Structures are given as C-alpha cells and as structure tokens.
Amino acid sequence: MGAGREKILIVDDEENARIGLTKLLAQEGYEVDSVADGCEALEYLRGKRVNLVISDIKMPRMNGLVFLQELSRRHPSIYVIMITAYGEVESYLEAMNLGAFEYLHKPIKLDVLKAVMNKLFERGAHLC
User: Fold this and answer.
1) Are 78 and 124 in contact (CB under 8 A)?
2) pLDDT tens for residues 50-104?
3) CA-to-CA distance for 45 and 105, rounded, in angstroms?
4) Contact partners, residue 119, CB within 8 Å, separation at least 6
5) CA distance 33 to 25
6) How far apart are CA 71 and CA 50, in angstroms?
7) Which of 20, 64, 100, 111 could form a disulfide with 57 if both were Cys (CB 3.0 to 4.6 A apart)?
8) The pTM is what?
C-alpha cells in the first residue's frame, strides 16, 4: 500500500500541533483529516473510514486513553499511534494494553513517525 491510499485521522486538542502534523502528513501523500478531541473523533468515524488514528493522550472532554478504549471497542481493526508531551510510564503501559500500535513523544520527529507508519502499513492496515 503506497502513500496516498492510506487515510489518517489526527486527534489533538492543540490546534498548532494538529494543523502542523496534518500538513506534514499530507505533504507525504497521505489523506489526512483532523479533529480536536476524542468525542469529535468518534463522531467523525461514524461516517468515515480510516487506516490509522494518531491521537494525543492529554485532551479535555475525553482523554486519549478513554478514547482509545472506546475506539478499540467500536472499531477494533483501526491502528492507533498515541502521542504525548508527557513521559508517563503508566499511560504508556495503559495505551499499549488497550491496543495502541505505538506510543511516541512530542515533539514528533517526522522520520520516526514515518518509520512507525511504514511498519504499520507493511503489516496491512486496511480501511475499516
């Protein structure tokens, strides 16, 4: 599966981070949309299909771990990369136990994110 066919949803309450990551991934050839929190993401996913969700952990209304748990229940085949500006071991362990594919620290290094995404898409992340 080549870049451009994968559909990615960015979930982050920090507008600058969300817009920046959306632009970077779009420039890499991915189809990217973004929303501000887990509640908006779940609503978005009612009518759209994606291969990958990249979600922040610390967000208002619904934090990323609660969102990940709900996403895993509703859409178990969507891959998720969790991102955070905080290096908490507990949130890392919880995210991985809830089914996150990877856990990355902000600021996101594009080469690291691309390597994770290439590994994920080589595994066959399909639209769901």
Assistant:
1) no
2) 999 999 999 988 999 999 999 999 999 899 999 988 877 788 888 999 999 999 9
3) 25
4) none
5) 10
6) 12
7) 64
8) 0.90
